[in-house]
Each structure stands twice: as structure tokens, then as C-alpha cells.
Write a structure and sequence with these properties.
This protein has 6 helices and 9 strands; from the N terminus they run H-H-H-E-H-E-E-E-H-E-E-E-H-E-E. The chain is of the alpha/beta class. It has one domain: 3-Layer(aba) Sandwich (Rossmann fold). Strands 3-2-1-4-5-9-8 form a 7-stranded mixed beta sheet, with helices on both faces. A two-stranded antiparallel sheet has the order 6-7. The longest helix is centred in the middle third of the chain and has 13 residues. The radius of gyration is 22 Å and the shape is globular.
């Protein structure tokens, strides 16, 4: 009776099997789409979210509308416990954080209880202005102590950047004015339904809506290239 030698599993074979077992689902976007979204002018918005979060005492964070996951990755790298929420499945494979698939207009506060802070940036303008207050109130009723929110800001503003050295000249100029006289043309469902700075959507009205929903302003800031207003808010 002949005997057959058992195959020897080398360290490289083990590593190969481990890699096969740990292959993550692919991203729902291409590298080109990621690069086209996170442009030089947009990246400041991502940094400001992380910066605001770093000024408060928190550990467990809910990120609403994580897009392609850049802010999620940064927060995980820093050491926060991050969960995400969107009406669609998570678009990115890494980081593999818990994801809640919900429509924020139908969100119940108990579904998002237990977080120290909620990040909701460049998301609320996609829902009807009259529904925004109930969403903000649900965030407040969840028990989260802090909220970081941002929406497009088209009030009067001027931005001027200039970079110059011996071989390079780079400049940027933009100005927004008089949009308070115009009505915002709502985009099809899923697009922007309103923007701050247009008639009926003043910064004062926006901040009143935040206050009426149970939030107090800790800090306000603006981004100039992708024009938005950011608020760091604390629950009253």
C-alpha cells in the first residue's frame, strides 16, 4: 500500500490563502471618479470636518452621507469609532465600518442613539427646506451632544488666492453677489433643493432653523472655493 506525502503549506502559501479570505468587496466607483470628486478646492471641506471634530471631546461618531469615504478613512485613522448612514449602500470597501441604510427624512432618533457626535455635511440641501427642521430635531433627540453641519453658501463673498514663484503663477478669483434677489431653482429630486444666500434662504434663517431644532452654535466657518458654511453645534 503506497503512502502519499501530505502537502507542505509554506508561509507564502498561508499568506496567499489569507489574502483570498480577506478580499473586500470592490468600491462602487473608479479611481478616476474618486479623484474627480475630491479635488483641490473640495479637500478643504473634508479637512474642516476633521478639524472641528478635533476641538471637542468625543469618541463615537455617526457620519451622515459619507460619499466615497475620505472623511471616514481619516477619522478611523485618527482613532474614532465611526459608523456611517446613507439612503444607499456604502460605496467604499475600506474602511469597513458599520453602515445604516436609511432615508434621513424618515429617520427615528432611537435608530441613531449612542453617538457622541454627528457629522452631516453637504447633505441637508438635498431634502426639502420644510423637512430639514425635523431631521435636525431627530439628530438632537438622539442624545448626541455635538453636530457638525455644512450646507452651500451663496451669500455675498469674495475670494482671492495668489501663488507665485520663479517658475509658477497660480491665481484664483471669485465673487458672489446679489443672489439674495434671486429665487433658487430647485434641482430634480436628489439634487439641491435650496442653498443659503438665495431669496428666502438667508444665513439668519438657516441659523434660526438650527436653533429651533435644539442646537446652539459653538463655531461658524466658511470655505471659499467650494462655497459652504460650516457650523459646530452643541445640544441645548
Amino acid at each position: 500500500m503506497s503512502s502519499r506525502a501530505s502537502p507542505v503549506m509554506t508561509s507564502s502559501t498561508k499568506a496567499g490563502k489569507l489574502r483570498q479570505q480577506n478580499v473586500a468587496a470592490p468600491n462602487a466607483f473608479t479611481r478616476q471618479e474618486w479623484s474627480a470628486y475630491y479635488t483641490r478646492k473640495r479637500i478643504v471641506q473634508q479637512w474642516l470636518q476633521v478639524h472641528f471634530l478635533g476641538t471637542i471631546d468625543c469618541q463615537k461618531v455617526l457620519e451622515v452621507g459619507p460619499a466615497m469615504g475620505l472623511v471616514t478613512s481619516l477619522l478611523v485613522n485618527i482613532g474614532y469609532e465611526v459608523h456611517t448612514l446613507d439612503r444607499a449602500p456604502r460605496a467604499f470597501a475600506y474602511p469597513d465600518v458599520p453602515h445604516l441604510e436609511r432615508d434621513i427624512c424618515k429617520l427615528r432618533s432611537e435608530e441613531i442613539a449612542g453617538y457622541d457626535a454627528i457629522i452631516c455635511c453637504e447633505t441637508l440641501e438635498h431634502i426639502d427646506w420644510l423637512q430639514v427642521g425635523s431631521v435636525l430635531a431627530a439628530f438632537r433627540a438622539s442624545g448626541a451632544k455635538y453636530l457638525i453641519a455644512s450646507v452651500p453658501y451663496m451669500g455675498f463673498q469674495v475670494a482671492l488666492d495668489l501663488y507665485l514663484n520663479r517658475i509658477t503663477l497660480r491665481q484664483h478669483f471669485s465673487m458672489k453677489k446679489l443672489l439674495w434677489r434671486k429665487r433658487f431653482a430647485a434641482e430634480p429630486p436628489g439634487g439641491h433643493q435650496w442653498e443659503i444666500g438665495y431669496r428666502g434662504y438667508s444665513l439668519r434663517a438657516w441659523e434660526a432653523r438650527l436653533a429651533d431644532s435644539g442646537w446652539s452654535i459653538v463655531k461658524r466657518d466658511f470655505t471659499e472655493h467650494c462655497r459652504s458654511v460650516f457650523h459646530l453645534l452643541v445640544a441645548r
